[in-house]
Amino acid sequence: MLAKRVFFNKYSIGTKITMALGICIVYGVFLYTQGANPFLIYYEMFQATFGNVYGIGEVAIKATPFILTALAVAIPARVGLISVGGEGQLACGALSSTFAAVYIFKDMPSFIGIPMLLLAGALGGALWAVVPGILKIVARVNETITTLLLNYVAFFLVGYFIYGILKSPDAYGWPFSPRFSDSLRLPTLEGTRIHIGILIAVAVAIIVWYVTMYTHLGFRMRVVGGNVKAAKHSGIIVERMQFVTLIVGGAVGGLAGIIEVSGIEGHLRPMTGVGYGYIGFLVAWMAGNHPLLIIPFAILLAAISVGGNALEMHSGLNSSIVLILMGFILIVILAIGKRGGK
């Protein structure tokens, strides 16, 4: 993949460090123009994220959906596809698992109910990926366009049900689903909000890495991603491989949805997880679609995201200002990608 070839193979470690410092300097100048002390801002962001146990826990919580939605991008990328559907897959995974939690498994014990919800979330994300998969294989419609547009459909679909049959009787003017029973909430580390979702996300990343690097299936995926014509000549059914990877990526994105509602919120809202899929896409590009490298980059962007809350509390800047930093990182990656692709 372009991002992988350029960012991780073309540039030396020293060059990458220089790029990172350049980003920090340029963003610091931007902060200065907003009347803030960039050194103080960076210190406060570090203290809010890695300076205490609570901050570390918040980073882990935020990194979980980033890892999974990034993997939802990285898996299809192995066969040369560019999926931007993590946002919609997360939403549909959250929606399907909420239906399961409210109508099917609400009285189930944890050891049965939680695995069933994880399965329901993965199924919801996988089904949402079927549409771009079929359009790609049958009608040759670009998967980037279909997955991106379907994100908006998924957002309104969640809203339709939350304002309709899934709306809790206790919601009043604030629409959300009925709360999950305690037995269907993900276990947390005592005294913190850290739940087992982070372990699930890391485990999925390790599994994806192993499958893509050390199995026959992974080899076939790399062949398709490297040269479609060569793959066809070797007997690989390219269309089937592309369809399957889109579905598997969708299932992983759906896991992010169930983990978010069961691990953090306890119910589904129209805005649950909004924006996480796009950040996951950025994480995947930064990591060059490498499953293991996704983990540290997800932690980095999670720290930036959590640190944005500290900006609002201590400096008076709006927390959304960190999105400018993330956008700047993406621009740099795209810029060096274009340069490396010449």
Reported for the largest beta sheet, the result is:
none
Helix content: over 70%
Q: What percent strand?
A: under 5%
Sequence of secondary-structure elements = HHHHHHHHHHHHHH
Total number of beta strands: 0
CATH A-level architecture: Orthogonal Bundle
What radius of gyration results from the CA coordinates? Answer: 20 Å
CATH class: Mainly Alpha
Number of domains: 1
Calculate the mean pLDDT score and round it. 87
**Uncertain ranges:** 1-9
Describe this structure in words.
This protein has 342 residues and is mainly alpha-helical. 45% of the residues are buried. The chain contains 14 helices and no strands. It has one domain: ABC transporter involved in vitamin B12 uptake, BtuC (Orthogonal Bundle).
Describe this structure in a few short sentences.
This protein has 342 residues and is mainly alpha-helical. Helices cover 74% and strands 0% of the residues.
